[in-house]
Design goal:
One of its GO terms (biological process) is L-amino acid transport. Helices cover 35% and strands 26% of the residues. The protein is α/β, with parallel strands linked by helices. It has 2 domains: 144 residues, Rossmann fold (3-Layer(aba) Sandwich); 61 residues. Helix 3 runs parallel beside helix 6. The protein is globular, with a radius of gyration of 17 Å.
Length: 236
């Protein structure tokens, strides 16, 4: 296995409050990693730190495919193949599906943008059927698909998902998790996911990283012991 993403002694927070304390873990190429833990454990802050939205404090570092990325701006991270899909405000509600996709590819040439938009619509026919609809008029599941499609415009190697199943019913949730699994199988795209529906996502996950009070509490392989002491202590 080859390491794609590595965090070493990452410490950061908000204002004077430290949220992450010397967090270290690895994600292998094309793996699906899931960050789990109780509310306030620091899961979303891990994604924000990777994406440069929370600068690192002290001596920590983040590497992607062997090169340091902490301190890089969002545009450079996208060019390196990393995209971030936040839980909220991940589409432009007053714009159509097509305009959302076009906006996502603003830095590309018109020809490349059109080609990649066509590929996204082929991959997600539901978006094609609703291409003229405003994002705000889509269902929650359709908006999540649109946010994913916007990320795929950049041909990423790693997608950071913050609660991709939030607000989705069981059918839509399975569809979203299936789409993430297909990205791994068909395009070798890795994912690092914050997700509270642990049992459901265990069907596609390769590894779990458990956070508690901003520190790595435990790591698990594909077979997460959902009822073991180590797993249960994460949520206390």
């Amino acid at each position: 296995m080859e390491t794609l993403l590595a965090l070493d002694n990452v410490t950061t927070g908000y204002g004077k409050k430290t949220v992450l304390h010397n967090v270290s873990f690895r994600l292998e190429k094309a793996d699906i990693g899931v960050l789990i833990g109780s509310n306030g454990a620091g899961k979303s802050t891990v994604l924000r730190a990777i994406y440069g939205l929370n600068p690192l404090w002290e001596k920590g570092e983040i590497t992607f495919d062997g090169a340091r990325i902490d301190g890089l701006g969002v545009e450079r991270l996208i060019k390196k193949g990393i995209v971030y899909i936040p839980q909220k405000n991940n589409t432009f509600h007053n714009m159509s599906v097509m305009d959302n996709l076009a906006t996502a590819g603003w830095s590309l040439s018109d020809a490349v943008s059109r080609k990649r938009i066509a590929a996204v619509l082929e991959q997600f026919p539901e978006l094609g059927k609703n291409r003229k609809k405003k994002a705000g008029d889509l269902s929650g599941g359709q908006r999540q698909l649109l946010a994913l499609g916007m990320g795929l415009i950049h041909r990423p190697r790693l997608i950071l998902f913050d609660e991709p199943s939030a607000g989705l019913d069981a059918k839509r949730m399975r569809g979203m998790f299936g789409a993430i699994a297909n990205l791994k199988q068909e395009s070798r795209i890795a994912s690092l996911i914050v997700e509270h529906r642990v049992q459901a996502i265990s069907e596609i996950a390769d590894r779990f990283i458990g956070l508690k009070l901003g520190k790595i509490h435990a790591t698990f392989g594909k077979e997460l012991p959902l009822h073991g002491e180590a797993a249960e202590n994460l949520f206390i």
